[in-house]
Amino acid sequence: MELIYLDNAATTSIFPEVVLVMQETLKENYGNPSSVHAVGRTAKAKVESARKYIAQQLGAQPQEIIFTSGGTEGDNTILQGAVQYLGVKHIISSPIEHHAVLHPLTHMAAQGLITLHMVKVLPNGFPDMHDLDRLLTSIPDKKLVSLMHINNEVGSMIDLNAVGDLCHQHNALFHSDAVQSIGHYQLQLGELPLDFAVASAHKFHGPKGVGFMYVRKKTGLGGLLLGGAQERGMRAGTEAVHNIVGMEEALRMSYQTLDEDTAKLKELKSYCLSALQEALPGTVFNGACYDMNLSTHTLVNARLPFDEKKAQLLTFHLDLQGICCSKGSACQSGSESGSHVLQTLLSPNENKFPSLRFSFAATNTKDEIDKLVSVLAAYAKS
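RE: above sequence
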């Protein structure tokens, strides 16, 4: 059976070229980057070369790029570090953030370390800017705003300039989880009104277990992992040189074909939207994913006109047909409580219908969309 992988927002397949670069690094550059001998210095040079490339590609300074194990570690380090080192007492976020943001925030709030404020979210998945302004105005103490650039479930893409400018007008720090955008959009972090951002390599065809934080210089943020002085004291622990080099190569390849891939993905997404509505009348698209200007071109979140009985077996049926997709964030796939994003954006009546997220890579084809739609249409009639 042909496998159709439409869950690229959860993770992407690793580029074969990245695997080769990582294999070579594992064999040839096995030294500890903290060692002062020649083998260690060679490994260190690989790490710093990757840091320099990533910084140049994203309009940052090399010292502003801190390597981590991925998005979750980056979000936790920034949010908890802002409280521990920067004196932040109030954090404003939204109820549709990734749990890598929501869980540390609710944990710190429960411990009495911060006061947590939730900005209102509009039905299309965007923060209510008037409410954000109200919250920022009402908080005189040191504060931070944490809002993701692209929502990982419905694809809504906030205006980083608008949010960041508003934050800085009120002397608030601004952190954005950019896991779904770095590698897919040409962000210039140094030119944006951002203080902190995070990325994860496995979202742009790199290895799992590695990512990076962008920490604007002179913020004063400290690290959570204590031990050695690696990563300028921001992240103790021996660097995974092969993963870092693999991430560099994956990012390089992603940006080399960015324009071509973006055009293909926009066409594929538009085709998917039309095909679903034509084959399954009554299909509704959640958030703003129907609008290419307001959402990422990498995903569609569709609410399908199936009754409760059919909804229960829908993802199981698709899996049997070799189609990989998601009911929501992959990080929530084992939860019976459903998507916290859709619970926020949809009414209880709307949530009675099953919603599926189809997320694309440049390797996906219209033929695969045709197969998906054909399977869904046949299931609707069964």
